[in-house]
Amino acid sequence: MNQLAEFHSIQALGAALRARRVSAFELAADALRAARAYADPNVFLHIDDDLTLAQARAADQALAAGAAGPLTGIPVAHKDLFVTRGWRTTAASRMLAGYVSPFDAAVVERWREAGAVSLGKLSCDEFAMGSGNENSAFGPVRNPWDPERVPGGSSGGSAAAVAAGLVLGATGTDTGGSVRQPAALCGVSGIKPTYGTVSRYGIIAYASSLDQAGPLARSARDLVPLLDAMSGFDPRDSTSLESCDGAPNAAGRVQAAFDAAQAGFQAGGERPLAGLRIGVPREFLNEGLSAEVGAAVEAALRVFESLGAVRVDVSLPRTRLSIPAYYVIAPAEASSNLSRYDGVRYGHRAAVYADLADMTSRSRSEGFGDEVRRRILVGAYVLSHGYYDAYYLQAQRVRRMIADDFRRVLTEDCDVIMGPVTPAVARRIGDNRQDPIADWLGDIYTLGVSLAGLPGMSIPCGFGGESGRLPIGLQLIGRYFDEGRLLALADRYQQATDWHQRTPGHA
């Protein structure tokens, strides 16, 4: 039996560990067995019992010495985009098959230092390029709620592992919605923090001006210690921020903001959110939104109104432009970042080739999957001579206008923006195989947040689909550095509802 299944939150498990009712070693051993026995073998790409149990022993020693932190002994796992010592890091690509990094990513370091015990590496779309976790070179990941459906991407393995109860927390990366979208489709909670608050050091780069790490967990309250531990300035990352609106970018910032927001809500009594203005963009409630997702979002907004919040109609007029802007900027940066995989220094090298140019061409053709090659070609095109001004430069201008729209609305009209995460529930595996652009269009509600660098999160708010058992997510978007308040708002909603407590098989 997996002891982890007995605990529904990081707080509950942490209390049991500190009271010595369960040991980190026994917990990790059971979790490893459960991970290996899980019905979908593609969720974990690499498990190493020795590495995990060594971390568990260290956690037990810290617990015995009374030196435990909020994550000590908590089973977690990492998206295969974070480099790790010992565990393989492949970015779910044949290009990096078998690669083992000589160092840990900053986020991996910080969770380990906080006492978390890693079970291994989780699947993702190859080089984080995708919205369904079908692009992994090692096979698609299946949604725990329906094995015929995608879990979302690119952090689909992370969302599936949390939803299935294999871990209590997992790392993800969000370039255009890759934490929020799989969280929504798998019925878990996930947050993308403000760009620059979490170090990108050791994350295999897709689009450097957009990539940002974020955690996934069952509830908003569980996300607080996970995000708090991974946040902080890192001199190894040139985009890392030293301060966040005057506060040092360090561990403790998110927790302090969460606690302060909760104290303010508590003072409101039966209407804890009195005075809160929730902006609902009319562009998010368009003809592309399915009726069942729209109904679930409306019901969630009514819960917030019952807690005292006021709904405000707002406009983000360039919402539709976020798709072409993103799919120019992100592929352009990807084509530059992935040029290092040339078969010379590291990565896959073709076995047969005529000369250096042929070696590079064959190595990249063999090592990269279809979606990665597609985005590299798009990126190389928009950066080429004669097209840079027409495409890339224009996309950057649109990006600035999208960010200005968000800033205006969040400054003048409302305190937080809410709406759907995805236009529909999880699709069937293979549905968009002949039309990859359809997946790109499904990112319409998440891309603008990433282009603007704002914090955004997804929390469960209902179910839909033919079976009525496919999760639906509510998106919360805040001002820069507003992660603590966003998490507190989400927690207030989750105190009033139980969507986040439902699990596959027990909906």
From TrEMBL:
Protein family according to the UniProt entry: Belongs to the amidase family. GatA subfamily.
UniProt keywords, alphabetically: ATP-binding, Ligase, Nucleotide-binding, Protein biosynthesis, Transferase
Any single Gene Ontology cellular-component annotation: glutamyl-tRNA(Gln) amidotransferase complex
Any one GO BP annotation for this protein: translation
The protein's name: Glutamyl-tRNA(Gln) amidotransferase subunit A
Listed Pfam families: Amidase
Entry superkingdom: Bacteria
Subunit structure: Heterotrimer of A, B and C subunits.
Organism: Castellaniella defragrans (strain DSM 12143 / CCUG 39792 / 65Phen) (Alcaligenes defragrans)
